[in-house]
Amino acid sequence: MTMKVKEVADLVGISVRTLHHYDEIGLLTPEETTESGYRLYSEGNIETLQQILFFKELGFPLKQIKEIINSPSFDRNEALQMHRKMLLEKRKRLDQMIQTVEKTIQHMKGEIQMTNKEKFEGFDFSHNPYEQEARERWGNQAVEKANKKLADMSKEERSNFEETFNSIYRKLAEIRHMAPESKEAQVGIQEWYEFLNKMGHYSLDAFKGLGQMYVDDERFTKNIDQFGEGLAQFMCKAMAVFAEKNKA
């Protein structure tokens, strides 16, 4: 059974224009388009749309969502399990906040006394660990794509790539003793970010996660520190600063 675009829009609670846009960019192509131009969506399209909205909730850009759901390694069940963990964590926080609201009402009526600590129970401004896990899981698609692109390069292209790669690292090594948030450090890290995105697609969170890997994985640390001792640690901090600054 197929559904028309207006029916899908009403079912999901999004606009018809949004569905048209998803079709235009190749993110969600309807199962069939009639001679009259009507888009008809299948059950499979509906399932794909659910996944798209799941990743939008995580903050992924549409371009990256397209790469993820079209990847041969994408596992829909894995994505749903991740979504479930996130919702359970969110429900736990909401239950705590509801209790805080109820206790605050009683406190205002003079029925109970609340400590300052109790007034903020349920508030959690730290990063959702499951959200970070999801970002790291699917952010790895960028690494896989970059490796494939590198493998497909000609000898000359690979030589130019290595020359640019080494040049960026040498420049970063020269300023590794500066503060990671300094202008010089951020200019150098931006060059590294732009270089990586020529090879694949790195979200800001994936870029930050990659920097963390530089210090968590001793193999990365050893290779990077060949350009200068402490470079891996410097890049990790500078990449984190860059990611957070550019989210604003």
From TrEMBL:
The entry's keywords: Activator, Coiled coil, DNA-binding, Transcription, Transcription regulation
Ranges in a coiled coil: 84-118
Keyword Mitochondrion: no
Top-rank taxon: Bacteria
Database matches in SUPFAM superfamilies: Antibiotic binding domain of TipA-like multidrug resistance regulators (SSF89082), Putative DNA-binding domain (SSF46955)
Domain HTH merR-type: 2-71
The keyword ATP-binding belongs to this UniProt entry's keyword annotation: no
GO molecular function: DNA binding; DNA-binding transcription factor activity
Segments traversing the membrane: none
Cited InterPro entries: DNA-bd_dom_put_sf (IPR009061), MerR-type_HTH_dom (IPR000551), MerR_fam (IPR047057), TipA-like_antibiotic-bd (IPR036244), TipAS_dom (IPR012925)
PANTHER family linked: HTH-TYPE TRANSCRIPTIONAL ACTIVATOR MTA, REDOX-CYCLING DRUG-SENSING TRANSCRIPTIONAL ACTIVATOR SOXR
Protein name in the entry: DNA-binding transcriptional MerR regulator
Source organism of this protein record: Oikeobacillus pervagus
